[in-house]
Amino acid sequence: MLVFSLAAMVGCSSDEDTTPDDNTPSDDNNDASNDGEMTKEELEATKPGEYIVEKLEAGIPVELQFSGFVDNQAIMDDYAGRVQTVCDEYGISFSKTHAGGDVTQQISQIENYITMGSNIIFLIPPDGATVQDAVTAAQDAGILVLIYGCSDAGYALSTFGDQWTQGYMAGEVMYEYLQQTNPDAEAGSIKVAMLQTREITPMVEKATGMDDSVASHEEFNVVYTSDSLQDLVDDGFNQAENALTYDPEITYIFAQNCIPTLGVCNYISSIPNVDYNQYNVFCTGEDETTRELYELTEAGQASLRGTVQSDKNEGEYMQDLLRMAITGEAVAPYELKFVFAAITAGWDYDYTSADVDQSLNPFAA
Asked: How many Cβ atoms are within 10 Å of 140's Cβ, its own excluded?
């Protein structure tokens, strides 16, 4: 385990009292650690991930390498941009690579970072277990390693939202809306389309949470499922079209992520003489477009009824963790977990992740 601290180095002391020799000449060039500071030479001799702030102040270059796994350039660029913003704040050199969905490639990148003597590595891997050996080797080399999005990366500095909890909560939000608007619905009477993706472990966990919630309510009848939802507006449009073409009686659409949810709502709007009250769309996550959809829904011009989102942007959690690592506030192993809450459009439901029974969570430690 890598432990790094910003505390100043102090010399070892003996239990035996000693009296300075008055004839000992003073030496203004003694180790700077005597006055609580380290010399540039001392800092350069420390491990790559230690004393980051002090190294920067001493003019020693510090580098961060970013590696994204998911084969989605847009979302990886967004997350990389968040990390780069913090690097720019501190004057840390930033570079990024993309594994393109190939874990072997990502492990090779980590090994290359070790050879380069990188100071900090920030990873978005498929899961924590797959890259653990490579990350441990980096930590043994004295490199700070941060991981985003994996609940099984507790051996490093990690930040994540419990994906099962978020997916489960969104299903419960959907059910609460049904209870408030149609409390007498009979078993199996509410036809649902599930639009999901299971590309990497966090997505599997979220989709499982969605499934577990919906399956626990007898009123829901899942008549259409897709496990190929892409994080694209156009794909949401196409998947909604496929679902409603397959069964026009579907009235609830449960999409895993917010970006394709815009496409789902766009398709509904394209239906001739559409009655927005006929459709009820739910998802996880939030962005500017979903906030616009809330307003349209409240005005009777869209059908997004609710979502579940962390109390701040996921990228902000990445930035918080990086700042904490740079300053030494967080030391591995360390987990920074998201807090989730329900967000609704035109109706009320006070519901947070603290309300979820974690004994139902198959992924809970």
From this structure: 12
Q: Is the dihedral of CA 223, 225, 231, 232 positive or negative?
A: negative
Q: Residue 228 pairs with which residues in a beta bridge?
A: 197
Closest-CA residue to 258 (of 201, 206, 216)? 206
CB atoms under 10 Å from CB of 5, counted, come to: 10
Token pair of 127, please?
A: 């899961």
Return per-residue pLDDT of the chain as tens, 365 residues.
333 333 333 333 333 333 344 444 334 333 444 456 899 999 999 999 999 999 999 999 999 999 998 766 777 888 999 999 999 999 999 999 989 889 999 999 999 999 999 999 999 998 899 999 999 999 999 999 999 988 889 999 999 989 999 999 999 999 999 999 999 999 999 999 999 999 877 889 999 999 999 999 999 999 999 999 999 999 999 999 999 999 999 999 999 999 999 999 999 999 999 999 999 999 999 888 899 999 999 999 999 999 999 988 889 999 999 999 999 999 999 999 999 999 999 999 999 999 999 999 998 86
Angle at 10 between CA 7 and CA 16, to 5 degrees: 145
With b for 16 or more beta-carbon neighbours within 10 A and e for fewer, the 54-76 pattern comes to bbbebeeebbbbbbbbbebeeeb
Let me know: does 28 contact 10? Beta carbons within 8 Å: no
In angstroms, what CA-CA distances link 341 with 57, 186, 285? 40, 28, 10
At residue 305, what is the residue type? R
| CA-closest candidate to residue 155, choices 316, 362, 3, 363 | 3
